[in-house]
Amino acid sequence: MYKKSSLIILVAVFMQLSCKVKKDKTSYVKDEVQVVLLAGQSNMAGAGNYDELSEELKARIAKVSHRVWVSQSNTLQKPLSFYDNKPSEKYNFKKRFGPELFVGLTLAEAYPNQEFLLIKEAKGGTALYGAWNPEWTLEKTREIEKGEEKQSWNLCDIHINSIKENLINLDQKNKTHHFFGMAWMQGENDARLKVSINSYAENLKKLIRKYRTTLNVEKLPFVAGQINSHYGMEGGVRIIRNAFLEVAAEDENVLVVETKENSPYTDFPKHSDNVHYNTEGQIRLGTIFANKLIELQNLK
Q1: How much is the pTM?
Q2: Any residues with CB less than 8 A from the CB of 88 and at least 6 apart, and which?
Q3: Distance of alpha carbon 88 from alpha carbon 80, whole angstroms
Q4: Which of these, 297, 296, 259, lies nearest to 281 by C-alpha position?
Q5: Domain segments of the chain: what residues?
Q6: pLDDT digits over 28-58, tens only?
Q7: What torsion do the CA atoms of 251, 228, 203, 220 make, to the nearest 10 degrees?
Q8: CATH for 33-297, among 2.50.20.20, 1.10.540.10, 3.30.2140.20, 3.40.50.1110?
Q9: How far, CA to CA in Å, does 274 sit from each of 79, 227, 261, 264?
């Protein structure tokens, strides 16, 4: 009788734990690589200083780096870490990182049995109306982008082509994949012109739709970071900030990382230029991007 009662209790506990796991996180195939897309402009590119991280954080990153891979601007897949950048007058350090570093760390620690591939495309000073436009035209890029190089970029297609090439690489390694979601940090440059300000919400919807349609992921989770610069036309940034909320209100698979509108930017700290997130700001941004992507897994 005692053994029978104990068995019943053990079965009940197991069922309760199983339900809890299913509720908290989507169950994935162990050998299936979780693909995370990242895109945007300079704050997605990142100006975090790796050398400012604590030894404890560096150790945590190193511990998961063997199962978190990063491909930036169609580069070869590399283990999660910083990227080398030439020191500039503005940022006099070489080992830089963007949100991808703590997106990767947070997801890897949340899913200790999974492998992740982060595919990122980020170019500073680019607009959704121009270089990132899902309905790209040379006329639009010339209208808003500065310089012939930026005017030639069709970044949405460049990113999607990079994604496809990375998936071919996975296939060659006999690995399957699952699209975990996408993080977007962009919008400052669209505040320059009235046409790009007023079309931001619609263009963002089209961008999300293009990724979902092209990659055949109907409910691809999408997390957008809300800009808070003071660049461009008066009132433009506020309209774009509200555009993020509008898009999220209409799509249950979209979430927004809401930010303080004015300085001091204590939520996501910035460098002295009050535009680009510093080391702590990038730590927080990457972490919240990951947590919001995890939150969206339960809706799929």
Answers
A1: 0.90
A2: none
A3: 24
A4: 259
A5: 33-297
A6: 666 799 999 999 999 999 999 999 999 999 9
A7: -40
A8: 3.40.50.1110
A9: 31, 12, 12, 9
